[in-house]
Specification:
The protein has 16 helices and 13 strands. The N terminus is likely disordered. The protein folds into 2 domains: about 160 residues, Ferritin (Up-down Bundle); about 300 residues, Rossmann fold, CATH 3.40.50.150. With about 525 residues, the protein is of the alpha/beta class.
């Protein structure tokens, strides 16, 4: 008997690709497809966690419905209670049903009803109006059903799947501006977390997108063997669809959070007014226009002492909003902005930047490589603001007094690590190198200004540069043309030209001999 051919087991990337293909050609485009996939991913992982906890309860208390169906036994472990029809096992078994779309919508409604923290987070009456055929939904459910920890032993399988879909849909959408910024590449968020060190306290994001900053904050604590329960996350998001994604993302990971009671504009409707936090991590929409009316927010306390940011660009409005949220004693923020915010010399932005520097709020400016983002190929800057640059002990390190200094770092050449064909990301080794540089500057140990990489500039030097924050104004750049030995280079060129002319003469002689051989003479 012939042996059966061994079927190659699908890779995780292959399964995720098939999930994307299952919805190709549906009505509604990338955003609806993204929400359709993310909703099912949520159901799958919520179901897996539920079943695992259910088995633990059964092992401890036996097969007793009063225990197995008790909501509090699940919520005490940060796991959502699911009614039978909302469990993934039920959905997967009924994937071929004619009413599968209605079953999915019912499951979402039931989960929200039994778990108040999810109120408003899950798509409601969505799948029945999506415009997909039942065969497409079955195909999608079948693919997502293959993703489980028994097959894939990744450190953060939920994060791997979740971020994949956020990433690819952001790429496919090709959106710029406010909508296109909802996904910040994980390696950048990882870098921010390593630099500001959110070990304990409250982390705030005023434009939280899908919640990636919060996830990386918790990952940072776990990487450094801290207690994730000592971190609380607070945020806000103006886009209602993305706000729901964030709540799903955090909920499925068991991260408690306060994203406000609804999606709302941070500027027009601050849902955490007067709240002070220990850390801010953010990636605001780049160069957001018309963020306020011409006569709005003129007396807003967030801008007091600095000036009112211009209507035409919200970059400095984000900076001042972030600064207003920081604990006045020890608050620290890491956030991203377009490079244009570094260098404006006129209008309303210049006096704000000048006052930020004179108030000694800016700790570091780090320019990142181009093409790290899915919605723009521009180079962007990581800002670090710090309300305490004085000498002190922090997280086991003895920091020196950095008042009156700013660290400038230029990472634009760190662009060799490519993924998704054309996007740049930082490796763990690169992140560790930046962390070492930054820590060395803070402590005064093992740091030196390095041409084409970093420079510690004094406030006097910055004043002399008209308060510019462009690292290129301070970091030494080497003219590599000056390294050329011109005399030796000219001799090399002359030698090559002589050899070329000699070879050409030999070729001409051979050609004349060949023509003579057939009775032609070259004149």
């Amino acid at each position: 008997m012939a042996k059966k051919a061994k079927v190659a087991e699908q890779s995780l990337d292959s399964i995720l690709w098939n999930c994307r293909n299952a919805l190709r050609g549906t009505v509604g485009g990338n955003e609806k497809n993204r929400d359709a996939v993310m909703g099912l991913v949520f159901l799958k992982f919520a179901g897996d966690k539920f079943e695992k906890r259910r088995a633990e309860i059964q092992a401890e208390h036996g097969d007793i419905p009063a225990f197995l169906e008790k909501d509090s036994f699940y919520r005490s472990k940060n796991i959502f209670y699911l009614t039978e029809s909302a469990r993934w096992s039920h959905i997967a078994q009924n994937a071929s049903a004619n009413d599968i779309a209605i079953r999915l919508d019912t499951a979402m409604a039931d989960i929200e009803d039994r778990n108040p923290p999810l109120k408003g987070a899950l798509p409601q009456r969505f799948y029945a109006t999506l415009g997909t055929r039942k065969e497409q939904l079955k195909s999608l459910i079948d693919e997502i059903n293959k993703i489980d920890e028994a097959r894939f032993h990744e450190k953060d399988l939920i994060g791997r799947v979740y971020e994949y879909f956020l990433q690819v849909f952001a790429i496919d959408s090709g959106q710029g501006g406010e909508k296109g910024e909802f996904y910040t590449p994980a390696s950048i968020v990882h870098l921010i977390a390593e630099l500001i060190e959110p070990y304990t306290g409250t982390v705030y994001d005023p434009c939280c997108g899908s919640g990636g900053m919060f996830v990386q904050s918790v990952k940072f604590v776990e990487r450094h063997h801290g207690n994730r329960l000592k971190i609380s996350v607070v945020g806000q998001e103006s886009n209602s669809d993305t706000w729901r994604l964030a709540k799903m993302n955090l909920a499925i990971r068991g991260i408690s959070h306060d994203l406000g009671d609804r999606a709302a504009s941070t500027f027009a409707d601050d849902r955490h007014k007067d709240r002070k936090v220990d850390f801010v991590m953010a990636n605001p929409p780049f160069n957001l226009k018309k963020w306020r009316g011409e006569n709005e927010l003129a007396d807003d306390p967030r801008f007091r002492g600095y000036g009112l940011p211009p209507v035409a660009n919200a970059n400095y409005a984000w900076i001042l909003h972030i600064l207003s949220k920081l604990d006045v004693t020890n608050g620290i923020a890491g956030f991203l902005l377009a490079n244009g915010a570094l260098n404006t010399t006129d209008g309303a932005e210049f006096p704000i930047r000048k006052q930020l520097l004179e108030s000694d709020k800016v700790e570091a400016i780090i320019v990142l490589p181009r093409e790290m983002f899915y919605s723009t190929d521009i180079s962007v800057t990581l800002w670090i603001l710090n309300n305490n640059k004085a000498a002190r002990k922090l997280n086991g390190r003895k920091l020196r007094d950095r008042r009156g200094e700013v660290l400038f770092v230029d990472l634009r050449r760190w662009n060799e690590n490519i993924y998704e064909k054309s996007f740049v990301q930082f490796s763990d080794e690169q992140i560790a190198a930046v962390k070492k540089l930054y820590d060395g500057w803070q402590t005064g140990e093992d740091y030196a200004d390095t041409p084409e990489l970093c420079k510690s500039a004094t406030l006097e030097e910055i004043r002399a540069k008209n308060y510019s924050l462009a690292p290129s104004k301070y970091i030494t750049f080497i003219d590599h043309d000056l390294e050329i030995d011109y005399a030796a280079e000219m001799k090399r060129i002359q030698r090559e030209m002589r050899d070329l002319l000699k070879a050409e003469k030999q070729s001409q002689a051979l050609l004349e001999t060949a023509f003579k051989g057939i009775g032609y003479a070259i004149k």
